[in-house]
Amino acid sequence: MKTGYGYRVFQVINYFFLALCGLVTLVPFLYVILVSFTDATEYMTSPIVIIPKHWSLASYEYIFSTSTFMRSMGVSAFLAIVGTACSLIVTSALAYAISRKRLKGRKFFQVSILITMLFSAGMIPNFLLIDSLGLMNSIWSLIIPSLTSAWYVLLMKNFFSEIPDELEEAARIDGCTDIGVFIKVILPVSTSALAAFGLFYAVGYWNTYFNAILYINNDALRPMQVVLQLMLITSSTQMADPSVAAMLESEANIPPQVIKMAAVVVSSLPIVMVYPFLQKYFIKGMMVGSVKG
């Protein structure tokens, strides 16, 4: 198809504008990465770093040697792995149940799930609930409240509804029970949906912050995002947290700003590395699960 001169000019301007927007959004990320690899002496003489003249891994070596950061990283990893697994089990099981037309009270359950998307109890009732269950200062207080999402349940329910009934009937002829059909037939053909929602859950658990502020007072159970926020407060105000302040006081004379930049890079890297492997499942799962209802 032939295009006119005006259309080609518009395309050039459009691509240039989009490339400029992309570059502007990338600059802060590049700055964080460059500062994290900057030598401490160079940063102290010139805090504005464009391209470091002297590269250094001292900030990364230091944060990996501190117990506070490594402990918080372990907590976040536990939340991302165990929390995502539990959420996928609960979400997929509930979605499969309400996707079966033979389920008695199916519409009631669907409406009940939908209501939770429109109304919520609020912060104080949730806090009182967690406290009454004895989950305060427990790692499970960061998993159970986020165990499932009504929106993800409905999307996955749509995905399961599109699976041919013949697969389930064939499994039942072979003697499978409802649980057997779900585990041996439904889940293996739902890899794309599970990967897509698993990525969402993993990112949510890895970035857990607000619930940790509410329910966790134990230093040993702080996830990484809370430690990063305390690092910012400790270095900019007089409200110093003892464990975080000790981490920022580097014996190698590394500036706190460089340590914070390295911590940000390390905290972002796992999710950035996981996404490329799940991208094809992510796109397929979200498109198929959201077309039909």
TrEMBL record:
* Entry's localization field: Cell membrane
- The answer, when asked if rRNA-binding is one of the entry's keywords, is no
Q: Which Gene3D superfamilies match?
A: MetI-like
Transmembrane segment boundaries: 12-34, 75-96, 108-127, 139-160, 181-203, 258-278
Q: Which GO terms describe its biological process?
A: transmembrane transport
Q: Which residues form the ABC transmembrane type-1 domain?
A: 73-277
Naming one, the record's GO cellular component terms include: plasma membrane
Alphabetically sorted, this entry's keywords are: Cell membrane, Membrane, Transmembrane, Transmembrane helix, Transport
Stated membrane topology is:
Multi-pass membrane protein
Q: Extract the signal peptide range.
A: none
The family classification in the record reads: Belongs to the binding-protein-dependent transport system permease family.
Q: What is this protein called?
A: ABC transporter permease subunit
Query: Which species is listed as the source?
Result: Paenibacillus dendrobii
